[in-house]
Structures are given as structure tokens and as C-alpha cells.
Amino acid sequence: MSIVALTILLIKLWQFNLPRPEGARAVNRSLSLWHKGETEAAIEQLNTRQTVPAVLLLAMRGMRKGADQTLLREEVQRVASYRLNQLKLLLRPLEVIANLAPLLGLLGTVLGMIEAFQQMESAGSRVDPSILSGGIWQALLTTAVGLAVAIPVVAIHSWLERRVERIAASLNDAVTQVFTHQPKPQQSGKIANAA
After folding, report:
1. pLDDT tens digits for range 136-164
2. If you count Cβ atoms within 10 Å of the first and of the last residue's Cβ in the chain, which end, N or C, has fewer?
3. Are 26 and 50 in contact (CB under 8 A)?
4. Rounded distance, CA 71 to CA 175, Å?
5. Cα dist. 67→63, 78, 173 in Å?
6. Between the CA of residue 166 and those of 22, 87, 112, what are the distances in Å?
């Protein structure tokens, strides 16, 4: 279980840190340009490798083309759900490992205690305390290993889940800004000076 958990952790760290799903800088620059009416420049700031910028790019292109907002919202929601599910991928197995590791350790403890008491019973009246202490030591070791696997996995799982929630909130905020703030049309310098 520890090897599987470590493998999943490495995959998730790569997924969350290499492409940086939030793309916060690009999103902020793009939204700033979008609000100023510089739609083409806003779109150029975004890429499709990162989760939030990719969905934001879809929303901006659709709004710029004048697509039906209801259909565009549905498409954006579909793509956003797909992208977020990609980030949630393998979180469930981490949760299962976090729940099963201490239980397997406890099972090992119970089986070890059963074996220690069977050895005590077979020894009869010549019970040697070392038989009992050796069996208990081995039994408790399995619980310790189960907890040693579960504790970091629970912490990592919680951190990854929180990260996905923050990305979802950022995604929702960015897309909402695109739909609610129509870009101001740019005016040429002469018109602005004449006014």
C-alpha cells in the first residue's frame, strides 16, 4: 500500500506542479485585458495546458464570437467538469489506502495476539514471558506500520483535495467574470480626444 500511495503521490505532484493548473498570472492578465476590451490580447494570454486558462479561453472565444450564452455556459461547464475530474483522478485510491492501512495493521495485531496466546496455551504451565512479549511486539509492529502509512496519506489526500477545491473556485470566479463583464469596446485615440 505504501508503494501504491507513493506512486500516486508522485503522479499527483507532477500533475499539480508541472503545468500549474491554476495559471493565476495568465488568468489575471487575461481578465484585466478582457475588462479593458482588449479581447484578442486577453485570449493570447491563455493556453490549453492549464486547467483554468483552458476553460477561460473557451469562454472568451465563445463570448467574442457571440455564441448563444446558454449553450456556451453548458459547454464551459462540461469542459470544466472534465478538467476537474482529471485533477481528482487517483484521489479515491489514496482515500482507500488511508482507510485500509490502519485496519490491516489492526488485523495483523489481532492475528499476532492470537498466535501469542496459542503459544502460551501450548506451553501449558511452563509459560515463558518472552514468548508472550515477542508475540505482542510483533503484533503491535503491524499496527505501527499501518499507522505510519495512513497518517501521511491522509494528510496528502486532504492537501490534494483542498487544492482541487481552490482550483474549482478559481475556475468558477474567472468564468463568471467573463460572462458578467462584457468587454468595453476600445475607442481610438482621436475619438477619445474629441470627446
Report:
1. 787 888 899 999 999 999 999 999 999 99
2. C
3. yes
4. 14
5. 6, 16, 20
6. 9, 12, 44
Here the contacts of 122-127 (C-beta below 8 Å, separation 24 or greater) are none
Out of 15-19, 64-68, 96-100, the most confident range is 96-100
Q: What is the pLDDT of residues 2-42, one digit of tens each?
A: 899 889 988 988 888 777 778 888 899 999 999 888 989 99
Distance CA 102, CA 148 (A): 8
Q: How far apart are CA 169 and CA 177, in angstroms?
A: 12
Nearest-CA neighbor of 57 among 183, 186, 171?
Answer: 171
Asked whether the beta carbons of 132 and 88 are under 8 A apart, the reply is no
Considering the entire predicted model, what is its pTM? 0.77
Please report, rounded to a whole number, the percentage of residues in the chain having pLDDT higher than 70: 92
Question: What count of other Cβ atoms lies within 10 Å of the Cβ of residue 106?
Answer: 15
